């Protein structure tokens, strides 16, 4: 995948809840970075936790991605979907982090419960997050990119710089392992026919995809309600920008 992350391809993998009410007139994203940050950080942080299974790693990758956007906001704000660009930067930072570490840390969630969440929703979300944290990093990354970003095997392979067959094999193993840990029935269709999930929501009957989507939404609600953490994260960005702690190139989209 090229570094041109303002493309339509990147935007095609964004979750359905992003890019809605915060859009300005004419459907354009807000030109103000603070509005963009407030609107998109909870969903991006939720997705980062799903990808890596560790709250601190997720926070670090999200902050780095938003800092890159802030330092290049004159350019990024002109993209059709700047949140797609920030998502791509976040994913690649997490992938580099996981590859360097060789093995991921177990989940350190430290997430406040969403006020409107029912007890069974919270219990299910915690089961999913615990099971996801037990997956090998590559299986987890591929599973989330396929199930929540609605990416094809080829697009996942391009994003992670791996072979399509490797992406396909890790998806199969990831689904099998996660299903087993969650006590869900095996897939009844060949893997190539498993419906993608994303802007249209989980496909009917795909209980694994539904569980992942519900957990992602649960996390997003928790992060949206944590206004203090949101303010602290924004202040942290301002401090890093002022101290010149950015990555210099601002795009963060080099090969993992």
Shape: globular
Largest sheet, if any? none
Q: For this entry, what is the oligomeric state of its chains?
A: single chain
Helical region count? 11
Order of helices and strands: HHHHHHHHHHH
- Measured by DSSP, the beta-strand proportion falls in under 5%
Mean pLDDT, all residues: 77
User: Distance N terminus to C terminus?
Assistant: 11 Å
Q: How many discrete structural domains?
A: 1
**Helix/sheet category:** mainly alpha
- Runs in which pLDDT lies below 50 for 5 or more consecutive residues are 1-30, 196-201, 247-256
**Rg, Cα atoms, Å:** 17 Å
Helix content: 55-70%
Question: What is the β-strand count?
Answer: 0
Structural features, described:
This protein has 256 residues and is an all-alpha fold. It has one domain. Helices cover 60% and strands 0% of the residues. It is built from 11 helices and no strands. The protein has helices at residues 8-11, 33-52, 55-71, 73-76, 82-101, 119-133, 137-147, 153-160, 164-182, 207-225, 227-242. Helix 6 (119-133) packs across helix 10 (207-225) and helix 7 (137-147) packs across helix 9 (164-182). It is globular. Mean pLDDT is 77; it is low at 1-30, 196-201 and 247-256.
């Amino acid at each position: 995948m090229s570094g041109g992350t303002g493309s339509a391809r990147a935007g095609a993998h964004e979750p359905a809840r992003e890019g809605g009410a915060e859009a300005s007139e004419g459907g354009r994203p807000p030109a103000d970075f603070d509005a963009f940050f407030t609107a998109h950080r909870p969903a991006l942080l939720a997705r980062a936790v799903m990808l890596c299974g560790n709250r601190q790693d997720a926070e670090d990758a999200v902050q780095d991605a938003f800092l890159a956007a802030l330092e290049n906001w004159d350019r990024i704000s002109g993209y059709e979907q700047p949140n797609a660009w920030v998502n791509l930067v976040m994913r690649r930072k997490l992938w580099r982090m996981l590859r360097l570490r060789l093995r991921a840390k177990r989940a350190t969630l430290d997430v406040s419960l969403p006020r409107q969440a029912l007890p069974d929703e919270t219990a299910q979300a915690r089961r999913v997050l615990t099971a996801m944290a037990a997956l090998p990093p590559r299986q987890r990354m591929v599973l989330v990119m396929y199930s929540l970003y609605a990416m094809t095997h080829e697009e996942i392979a391009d994003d992670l710089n791996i072979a399509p067959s490797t992406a396909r094999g890790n998806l199969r193993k990831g689904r099998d392992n996660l299903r087993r840990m969650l006590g869900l029935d095996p897939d009844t269709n060949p893997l190539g026919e498993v419906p993608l999930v994303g802007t249209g929501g989980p496909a009917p009957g795909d209980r694994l995809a539904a569980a992942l989507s519900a957990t992602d939404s649960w996390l997003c609600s928790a992060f949206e309600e944590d206004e203090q953490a949101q303010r602290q994260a924004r202040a942290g960005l301002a401090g890093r920008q002022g101290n010149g702690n950015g990555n210099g190139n601002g795009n963060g989209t080099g090969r993992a």
